[in-house]
Design a protein that fits this description.
Length: 360
């Protein structure tokens, strides 16, 4: 955990690369947003870098296909991406319709968004999260076919990639009423606070007592894996159990003064750097849930971090004394049992989720 006032200035979304065909309109808007926000971009374009306004400028890092046919590059971009976001008005036509048909035929996740209607950024973000989209193909009409669509697409995409993160915040105060509907049905007593400290407070509901964080924000856990398969674990002393535990790098979102609304992904990036000294080139949301629902309403969101680079010593902040262990992921259970280490059991949940994500 960290209570400093500074924060990590890294991008706060899970999409690592945006691709398009480079045509005017929606394609060009997507590339411009990627460049402006520092997101890796690319994609396939027709031979000769053909577009309706002439030759596609060199600033757009596109690769030419062997054909001048637009359909060839359309198919390649759908094939090489994790999913396709289609922005359009009224109905799909021509190349935009082909993109949708190809994505459906290839079984690729596709989201169609009409930008002539009120738009929910949350809907786009949730789709990206649910489908673990790291490489996003963006498609839609060219500029000459629909006046103003390039600017409209640019504005929407910039807003989309400036929000964070692509994991639901399941903090108690952010739960939808349906999550607590059982309390109403069962006519359970209201919740009262019986004690409050600096960082936590104890609540009572009937005969049940449980703990809440004062910040009411989730924790984040990071499964950081090297290219050779070693997973980065941390060891630190935990006063409640009177022992040093083996854990995943983890911490709280929003516990910095002045950064109470810290994005979950930014919190994960910060905690990884502080505890381990590593930064990661690629981030993927894994799952979120409750850490110990009989004792606390705290939730935790796990992220997979790949492409690790050592940038500092790590070891934690504010007097933390964190040791690192880098163990092949397939040998973690044997290593734990042979060393007789005390373990934070959430470690196993994070490893399982990461292995499933990497296999899929």
């Amino acid at each position: 955990m960290n209570r400093r006032k500074d924060s990590v200035s890294q991008r706060n979304h899970g999409v690592q690369r945006i691709v398009s065909g480079g045509q005017t309109g929606v394609d060009r808007a997507a590339l411009n947003v990627a460049i402006e926000l520092g997101i890796e971009h690319g994609g396939w374009c027709p031979r000769g870098r053909r577009a309706e306004d002439g030759v596609i400028a060199p600033r757009y890092q596109l690769q030419e296909t062997e054909s001048t046919d637009y359909a060839v590059r359309t198919k390649r971009n759908v094939e090489d991406s994790d999913g396709t976001l289609i922005l359009y008005r009224e109905r799909l036509m021509r190349g935009t319709l082909l993109t949708h048909q190809l994505a459906k035929r290839l079984g690729k996740p596709t989201l169609r968004v009409r930008i002539d209607r009120p738009i929910s950024i949350d809907r786009i973000v949730r789709w990206l999260c649910d489908n673990s989209i790291c490489i996003l193909n963006v498609a839609g009409p060219r500029a000459s076919s629909q006046d103003g669509i390039e600017q409209q697409a640019y504005d929407l995409l910039k807003k989309t990639f400036s929000v964070s993160p692509m994991l639901p915040d399941v903090s108690p105060q952010r739960l939808r009423p349906s999550h607590r509907v059982h309390s109403t049905i069962m006519n359970e007593p209201s919740i009262s606070t019986v004690w409050q400290g600096k960082h936590i407070h104890i609540k009572r509901q009937g005969t049940w007592e449980f703990v809440s964080r004062n910040t009411q924000r989730p924790a984040v856990g990071i499964v950081a894996i090297h290219d050779d398969g070693r997973v980065v674990l941390v060891e630190q002393y935990r006063p409640p159990v009177g022992a040093s535990l083996i854990e995943l790098p983890a911490g709280l979102a929003g516990d910095n003064i002045g950064a109470e609304d810290e994005a979950l992904l930014l919190a994960a990036q910060r905690e990884l750097a502080e505890e381990t000294g590593y930064t990661a080139a690629h981030w993927q949301p894994l799952l979120s849930g409750y850490s110990s629902p009989g004792l606390t309403d705290e939730s935790i969101c796990f992220f997979l971090a790949r492409g690790l680079s050592k940038t500092s010593d790590g070891g934690g902040v504010d007097g933390e004394s964190i040791q690192l262990h880098e163990i092949p992921i397939d040998e973690v259970l044997h290593w734990l049992s042979s060393r007789h280490h005390a373990v934070d059991i959430k470690l196993l949940a994070g490893l399982f989720a990461a292995q499933q994500a990497m296999q899929s």
